[in-house]
Amino acid sequence: MQDNRLLPIGLFDSGMGGLTVLRALTERLPCESYRFLGDTARLPYGTKSRETIIQYTLNAARKLVEQGEVKMLVIACNTATSAALPSLCEAFPGIPVQGVIKPGAKAAVRATKKGCIAVLATEATIHGGAYQRAIAELDPKARVVGRACTLFVPLAEEGWMEGEVVEGVCRRYVGDLFEGESRPDTILLGCTHFPLLKGALARVVGPGVSLVDSAQTTAEAVDEYLAAAGLATPSKERGSVRFMATDNTARFVRTGSLFLGRELKEEEVELVDI
Ligand code: DGL
Predict the structure, then answer these.
(1) Which of 30, 171, 227, 268 is least surrounded by Cβ atoms within 10 Å, i.e. has the fewest?
(2) Same domain, 90 and 176
(3) What is the pLDDT of residues 223-239, one digit of tens each?
(4) Domain that holds residue 193
(5) Which of 21, 22, 36, 79 to mutate to test the pocket of ligand 1 (most atoms within 8 A of CB)?
(6) pTM to 2 decimals?
(7) Strands, DSSP E only, in 67-148?
(8) Could you tell me the distance, in angstroms and rounded to a whole number, from the CA of residue 224 to the centre of ligand 1?
(9) How many domains is the chain built from?
(10) Is 236 found in the same domain as 175?
């Protein structure tokens, strides 16, 4: 009989940003195995309609599952989580699905002292309102201001993390939010690409602002779920990680290393179509 505890965890992102979530997972749960799919052919999702995001997300999840069974799906993309989480749960009733919005909201509510949070995310995530709702559920009194920062995605995918241009773009998007007395004390990086710009953003908004993202809290949620469901691997050895991209694997290798925090090798990444 198959031991489901030994199956890998499937992760999906519209591009490479979700590798920040994979990084947190491999640090917290190093003995689990992972299969990561980046839909680099269709990035960005964040400027697309809800219907299109749902369709792409379902296709990507199907691809992950077709490649072999997974014991859990992690949607390592805020945009895909905010638009497609219910559709995914419906389409894959036998597989637990973990998104990144609730864990992100938890990280922000934990960090804020004044109850004033700026959510920076893609256009689709901000307009869908999923973060605003998830934060309100945890802390109904929290004041949340959302800002779509569309250009952060290509900057991060290009590996531009610092410098005049990056700080200029950060200032243009969020500078005004941090001018007055009522400035937020917490920034929630509500897109898996944005942790790469943390340094530049911190310089632009100045001291006294916590910058949090959903990577650690998502890893925490996966850990808790696996333990509660009896699905944690019994292995004591480091698990395997398999990468798939839908376009330009050479680019995935080059920039993916920045998100993952370790050198990726060409032979680790497979080109797939969805
Ligand atoms: N990584 C995606 C997210 O977390 C955004 C990138 C995109 O626009 O596709 O929202």
Answers:
(1) 227
(2) no
(3) 999 999 999 999 999 99
(4) 101-214
(5) 79
(6) 0.95
(7) 72-75, 97-98, 116-121, 143-148
(8) 25
(9) 2
(10) no
